[in-house]
Amino acid sequence: MPNPSLLEPSMSQNAANAHMQQQRQQQVLNGLHNLHIKRGSPLPPFLTGATVPNYDYSTSSWGAIEPGSEIGSFKLAGKDVNLFVLWSHVYKLGGGDRLNSLNGWNQLLRQFDLPEEFPPGHAHASSSVAAVLAQYYRAILTPFEESYKKNVQENQRKAGLVNRAGMMQNPAMGNMPPGQAMLQQSMNNNPAAMQRMGMNAPGQNMAGPQGMAPSANGAQRFPMNQALGQRPQSGMMVPPGGDAILPGTTPEVNLLDQDVQGIKRKLDSNELDNKRVRPRTDGQDGSPLSLGMLDRHSSEPQVPPAQLTQSAPSTAVRPRQQPSRRKIEYIPLAREVDTFGGRDFKLIETEYAGAALPQRRGLRDLNEWGTIDVEHLALSIRSRISTELSYGLTTFTLLSTMRGQQQGSGFPISQCPDLLDEALDLVEDLAFGGPEAPPDDHFQNDGQPFYTNKQLTDYILEEQQQPFAGLEIRQGSKDPDLGPVQRPANYILAVLNIVRNLSCFTDNIEPLGRNERLVDLLLRLCTVVTKNGVPTAASPALSLNDLISVRKDTLYTLSSIATSINLLTSSPLPSSTVRMARRAIDLISSYLIDPSEAVSPLACIQQAGVPIGPHLRPPHLADIALEVLTKFTLPDSNRQSLAKAIPQASLWTLFSALVHRMPVLDTDFQLMVQDQWLEYSTQLIMAVYSLVFLAPPELKQKMRSDRRLGFKSVMLRMLSRFLATPETRMRFMVCARRATETLKVLDDALDPFENPADSSTPALSFGMGFSDSNDNGQEKGTGLLGAHRDLGWEFLMAREVLQDDIMFRELESLVRVECQ
């Protein structure tokens, strides 16, 4: 091994630091060993490196600790944790008690490359790695930390006594700075320490060249004035409190030297604090003083330059003068904060740099939440106390998002009817103050204001653009007298969010759809009224912004449960059913009939201002509204009730808007190559079929003969494009069949609900023209497509049409003109 003195200076310094680090680590381990021996619980040998006679691992209280790969370390989550390094980091952060109070043990995980959580199946899987690390520290290192702090405090107290005694016994030290005077007094009282630092004890002569004294191992050291940070004659800078090691020598490490250096650093910091004191700007007699008359290291005036050159060679000690009065400036301690506005920039930069971040634990499964008392949740909601409501609705929200082990399963609301009833009671009380009164018999003749979704949105935008719009108190704003509680609308929106989450699971669709009170309350919340010519929510607790959110959540919920909603079909039709049916159709129509939005697929893309591409999708809310309309009007019982409840004007307005949304141009049909636009067009045709089926004979006649709308021409163009080639017939055969069925229902001038005896099949048999019933006779019709017989015969000659017997007979009845 080469001599350390022959290495480069930097390599020699690194070797010295590593050797010193090993010595300090061994001292800490020895201290741990002795301390735990005194406490009667000796540590295992692999933790301290010391031999313990007759040590039995099987009976030891430290048996749960896994040995590390080196002496003085243990295993935690598969990583080595060095006791000395752990103690050093904890001591720098303020000690174990401070980390416990600030919950800061997570800061140490990166130092040892530890994860945040144990792997599944581990013995400590129920606890975090930081918590187990804190337990190990409290058991092993906390007694050592307490003993170390007591020793440090005792040494500081003794150093203070020595300083005061030395100043009283040696007045000549008054000319030195406070830190140097105390260190000189400490060295005078400890001759052995002065010899190790290369200085003569009191009464001894300097030895060695240029006043240097040899150390115990023969290394030449600089005298006291150079050890305090002054520059020696050779030009080498000696750090304060350290020794200058000459080339060819080896460093000497001694604990007393380290203690002396620590005392000096503490005193130098006190001296630095004294330098912050602002001196007085006037003398004792009131005359102003100049800056050159005050010394930064002593309280006596400086000697003028002329006198300084004459008195410099003199070594006489001047008597200490009375210090002048100074003004004390108190500098408050500032706490360093690593975050800015609540954001940790270092963590954000680390994440952007792509560094590996600790993995977070995933969402818990439904079975991991344990037992939840549903009755307690219901009572919390019933109490109407803000804290109980927050707990109840938060827990209910979490339950509504949990998924079961089976596909499509979740929280079964059918098993907790009381919990849902309490949530509906809460919404009803906050929104309207109680249940709605039954409608009178004249409800069908009462007109209600109608606003589209775009009209409501435009009004909100216009209202918010007014000056000081955010300071105005409007409907739905929080009452300042309520105190620190939630706004009532927030509770309503929370319950609607819960219902929407529950409707996503298959097991909850039928219970929610059959709950007539739930459907009626949702549609009631979507009602819009006019106050002073301004559209307003019918609920006093909702603002117009809240109303937009409520209507959207209700639309999403109805898209899931619409197939399970059954309207009453008794005669006469109950007023409550009429009210529910009208509110549902009004909600659906508000997303479909706005003239600026009821346009063809190509116009929808042009309004969005984006180029045509595969990423384009149909209007989302319009697509959801079409889905609700097709599902809501699918059951025959609902069709009969809707035909009686919905006015003809509403049916005609909705029918016209849907016809304007159908594809007409070649570019529209090119978009239908994409699956999302094909589904959108299929729902359009199904919705038109439902409206034609609901229309009475006089409205059907208007649908056929209105040339401005041109419904028959639009449907004929769609059939010609769908059945043009074998490729298009294969892809668009479902749309072609639905279009043919729609034309067949429009061709039937009779009302199947009022004239069942005149029809060749039962009134509520599903299928266009009732062709899928038991009637195998020839289809009857008025020849709706008789003027286009050439095109019609081309349709009939298509192979796919010939293979579909029902579609062939319906098309043949539309083309054939019968003589009366």
UniProtKB/TrEMBL annotation:
SUPFAM superfamilies assigned to the protein according to its UniProt record, in alphabetical order: ARID-like (SSF46774)
PROSITE patterns with a match to the protein in the record: ARID (PS51011)
InterPro entries with a match to the protein in the record: ARID_dom (IPR001606), ARID_dom_sf (IPR036431)
Stored Pfam families: ARID
Biased composition (Basic and acidic residues): 266-283
CDD domains reported in the protein's UniProt record: ARID
Name of protein: ARID domain-containing protein
Naturally occurring in which organism (per UniProt): Ephemerocybe angulata
Amino acid composition bias (Polar residues), ranges on this chain: 10-20
Alphabetized SMART domains for the sequence: ARID, BRIGHT
All residue ranges annotated as the ARID domain in the record: 22-149
Gene3D superfamilies: ARID DNA-binding domain (1.10.150.60)
A single GO molecular function term of this UniProt record: DNA binding
Region Disordered, annotated ranges: 1-24, 230-250, 266-327
